[in-house]
Amino acid sequence: MTALSTDEIDREIASRTNEVTAMSTTLVELDNHPGLQHVRRYPPQGATARRWAEVEPALTALWEDLGRMTTILESARTLRSGDSRLDDDERAELTRLLREPSLEVSRHRVPFAQRNLTGPGETVVYVGLADTADRMRAAYPAVAEFLDHVDAVNALIATGLAPAQQKLDDAGVSGPEEIAELLAVSATDPLSLSTAEVEERIRAITADIDRRSAELAELAALRENWGTALAEAESELDALDAAVVAAAQIRAEAEQKVITGPFPVHADATAGLRAELTALTVEDPVALRSLRGRIGAALRVAHEDRELAQGLLDRRAELKGRLTAYQAKAARLGLSEDRDLMASGGIASGLLARRPCDLRAATRAVADYQQMIAELQERTTG
Questions:
Q1: Distance of alpha carbon 247 from its chain centroid, rounded?
Q2: Quick check: 350 and 319 in contact, CB under 8 A?
Q3: What separation in angstroms does the CA of 57 have from each of 76, 131, 139, 228, 324?
Q4: Model pTM above 0.90
Q5: Using one digit for the tens of pLDDT, what is the confidence trace for 122-180?
Q6: What is the DSSP string of 46-97?
Q7: Which of 31, 266, 273, 293 has the highest count of CB atoms within 10 angstroms of its CB?
């Protein structure tokens, strides 16, 4: 390697010094990261332990590599600290320190079976500033991402539970077991908790805390607005009646167009619920609240029945659309006249046209057609 000039050496030392200083500052901040403090305080388990088993050595290696860069730079600065004028040997040595792997980091004996008669008996590993800096840059994101993830989960839980905990404190009562369970998991295995799961569990905890007060408030509101509450229950029953009819219609259509298994059978509870409402002649908020709850449950069942049948119809429509798209692709590629492809497309079209349609067979046929297009395209372009 051509030796650097004195000015180039000075610029290189200054640049690398700034780089090492910035890396050192970042690693010191990382050492105080809340996520790192967390895993040091609570020994990780489960998914967090598995990730930590990868991240911890990487974090240790970052500090080791920082020390290696510092050692190389100190050697360079020491050699450069003398006269401002450098001779050829000094420039060559500084060039080696700054640009080449110059720091020995390990030695390993080469087993006899792996060396030849005149080969070396050991291998020596050297590192330099550039390769060490590149290695640190590559390793850092995974470490930071892990620590940020741990901290984000715990921050989400702390923020989410704060209102519920405040209500408990104000009431002077202990929290439900679910709070302790969530905190225990977040302490030892935060990475096993997705954001959606944390939010769902916090919602459940909050709902449990609020349940009784909400019930009392609801009963009071029903008593206060009895006439309106009865009218709302009547409207909910009308909605239930319409939903049951719609579900039956969609189910009948699905049975005609698609081969289905037996649909779940749910008795129409509308008439009985309407009779209960008619019989409610005195103010009874508890009874009305219970009745409206059962109306809501029946309405959800009706919607689910409709969605189940509609899903089968939608699947058939989706397969038809997919086949049309693949046929258009075949035409664009000039493959639509291929006999095998035409036969495959015909099978898929025929299956989708049957009433009732066998969705499993149609799905396989469309997939076969797609695969055949891909194979033909590969052959024609390969």
A1: 35
A2: no
A3: 28, 18, 10, 66, 53
A4: no
A5: 777 778 999 999 999 999 999 999 999 999 999 999 999 888 888 777 756 677 888 88
A6: HHHHHHHHHHHHHHHHHHHHHHHHHHHHHHHHHHHTS-SS--HHHHHHHHHH
A7: 273
Alpha carbon of 197 to those of 74, 193, 252, 255, 270: distances in Å?
Answer: 50, 6, 37, 37, 35
For the stretch 22-59, pLDDT in tens is 999 999 999 999 999 999 999 999 999 999 999 999 99
Q: What angle do CA 342, 346, 350 make, to 5 degrees?
A: 175
Instruction: Give dist(CA 286, CA 91) in Å, integer.
Output: 92
Residues contacting residue 331 through CB under 8 Å, at least 6 positions apart:
none
* Beta partners for residue 106, in sequence order: 125
Give the per-residue pLDDT at 173: 61
| Helix, strand, or coil (residue 123) | strand
Residue 44 and residue 189 in contact, taking contact as beta carbons nearer than 8 Å? yes
What is residue 118's DSSP assignment?
T
**Helices marked H in the chain:** 6-31, 34-41, 46-80, 88-99, 129-171, 177-188, 195-224, 226-257, 270-279, 285-332, 339-353, 359-381
Quote the CA–CA distance of 37 and 48 in Å, as a whole number. Answer: 14
CB-based burial, 161-186: b 16+ in 10 Å, e otherwise? beebeeebeeeeeebeeebeebeebb
- List, in sequence order, every residue forming a beta bridge with 210; answer none if it has no partner: none
pLDDT (tens digit per residue) in 222-273: 888 999 999 999 999 999 899 999 988 998 888 888 887 787 878 888 899 9
133-137 contacts at long range (C-beta below 8 A, 24 or more positions apart)? 133/19, 133/23, 133/69, 135/61, 135/65, 136/23, 136/62, 136/65, 136/66
8-state DSSP, 334: T
**Closest C-alpha among 298, 313, 300, 302 to residue 252:** 313
β-strand partners of 103: 127
Q: Which of 4-8, 110-114, 118-122 has the highest mean pLDDT?
A: 4-8
* CA end-to-end span of the chain: 45
How far is the C-alpha of 71 from the C-alpha of 76, rounded, in Å? Answer: 9
